[in-house]
C-alpha cells in the first residue's frame, strides 16, 4: 500500500515538474512576442510556478510581475505551527493563486502574495456570506460590453452582502448600515448607487448579486457580480518577507 502511495506521489510530482517546465517555455515565448511586437498576450492559464493569476484591481490592466521568489515549499510557518500545503500543490485542479495588483493592500493582501483556496460549486457559492475573500471568474461579456480587453480570467473581491436584484437602493443602503460604517458616508452611497444601477442594468435576468468591496488608490469601492461567478474561497494568504514564505489564515 505504501509503495503504491509513494508511486502515486512521485508520478504527481513528475507531472508537476513537466507542467512547470512547459509553462516556463510558454512564458519565454510570451516574453519574446511582447519584445518583438510590443503587445501583451492574455494571461489566462497557469504561471511558471504552477499557480493561477488573480487580478486585484482592474482585470483589464497589466501589472509588473515579481521576480526572484523561489518555488513554494511543502511546509510553511503559520502562526505557531507549520502548515502543510502539499494538498494544494498536488491538486489536479489549481488551488493556488498569485495576486496581481494592490487593490486589496488595505486588507493586507498585496501584489505577489499567494492564496490557498478551496473550490466551491454553485450550491456552496450561494451560502457564502460576509467577510470572505473570493476568487471570481471574470465575466467576459460584461467587459466586452464596456469595450475593455481582458488580461486576466479571475479577480479578487471581499464579500459584503448578497443582494436580490429587485431591491431598491434605499433598502440596500439600510441593510448595509447594519453591518458597515462606511456606507454612512454620502460619497460611498453615491458610488454604491452608480455601481448598483450599472449591475442590475446588465444582470437584470439574475435573481441575486454579491456585493463585494475592493479598493482603488486606497479608497473603498463597491463591486457587484452574480453569485454563480464565485469559483474559489481563499483559506490562507502566503506572504514572502524576503527570507521565507509565511502563511496567515483567512477563514
Structural class: alpha+beta
Distance between the termini: 34 Å
The secondary-structure element order is HEEEHEEHEHEHHEEEE
State the helix count: 6
Low-confidence stretches: 22-42
Shape: globular
Mean pLDDT: 84
**Number of DSSP E strands:** 11
- The proportion of residues forming helix, as a percent range, comes to 25-40%
Task: Tell me the β content.
Answer: 25-35%
Major sheet: 9 strands, mixed
Alpha carbon gyration radius: 20 Å
Question: Keyphrases for this structure?
Answer:
alpha+beta, nine-stranded mixed β-sheet, 251 residues, two-stranded antiparallel sheet
Structure description:
There is one protein chain. The strands form two sheets. Strands 1, 4, 5, 6, 7, 8, 9, 10 and 11 form a nine-stranded mixed beta sheet that branches. The protein has a two-stranded antiparallel sheet with strand order 2-3. The protein has helices at residues 2-37, 86-89, 122-125, 140-145, 169-177, 186-202, and strands spanning 52-55, 75-78, 81-84, 96-100, 114-119, 133-137, 154-164, 208-216, 219-226, 230-240, 245-249. The chain is globular, with a radius of gyration of 20 Å. Mean pLDDT is 84; it is low at 22-42. The two termini are 34 Å apart. A hairpin with a 2-residue loop joins strand 8 and strand 9 (219-226). The chain contains six helices and eleven strands. The longest helix has 36 residues, at 2-37.
Amino acid at each position: 500500500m505504501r509503495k503504491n502511495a509513494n508511486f502515486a506521489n512521485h508520478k504527481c510530482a513528475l507531472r508537476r515538474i513537466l507542467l512547470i517546465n512547459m509553462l516556463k517555455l510558454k512564458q519565454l515565448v510570451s516574453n519574446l512576442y511582447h519584445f518583438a511586437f510590443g503587445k501583451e498576450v492574455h494571461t489566462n492559464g497557469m504561471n511558471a510556478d504552477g499557480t493561477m493569476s488573480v487580478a486585484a484591481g482592474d482585470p483589464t490592466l497589466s501589472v509588473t510581475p515579481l521576480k526572484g521568489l523561489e518555488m513554494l515549499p511543502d511546509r510553511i510557518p503559520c502562526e505557531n505551527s507549520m502548515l502543510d500545503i502539499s494538498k494544494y500543490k498536488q491538486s489536479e485542479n489549481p488551488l493556488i493563486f498569485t495576486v496581481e495588483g494592490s487593490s486589496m493592500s488595505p486588507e493586507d493582501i498585496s501584489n505577489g502574495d499567494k492564496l490557498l483556496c478551496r473550490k466551491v460549486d454553485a450550491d456552496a457559492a450561494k451560502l457564502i456570506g460576509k467577510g470572505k475573500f473570493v476568487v471570481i471568474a471574470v465575466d467576459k461579456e460584461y467587459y466586452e460590453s464596456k469595450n475593455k480587453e481582458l488580461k486576466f480570467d479571475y479577480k479578487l473581491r471581499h464579500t459584503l452582502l448578497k443582494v436580490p436584484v429587485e431591491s431598491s437602493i434605499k433598502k440596500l443602503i439600510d441593510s448595509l448600515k447594519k453591518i458597515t460604517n462606511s456606507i454612512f458616508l454620502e460619497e460611498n452611497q453615491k458610488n454604491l448607487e452608480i455601481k448598483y444601477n450599472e449591475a442590475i442594468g446588465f444582470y437584470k435576468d439574475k435573481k441575486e448579486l454579491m456585493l463585494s468591496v475592493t479598493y482603488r488608490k486606497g479608497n473603498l469601492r463597491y463591486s457587484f457580480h452574480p453569485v454563480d461567478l464565485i469559483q474559489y474561497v481563499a483559506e490562507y494568504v502566503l506572504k514572502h518577507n524576503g527570507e521565507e514564505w509565511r502563511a496567515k489564515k483567512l477563514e
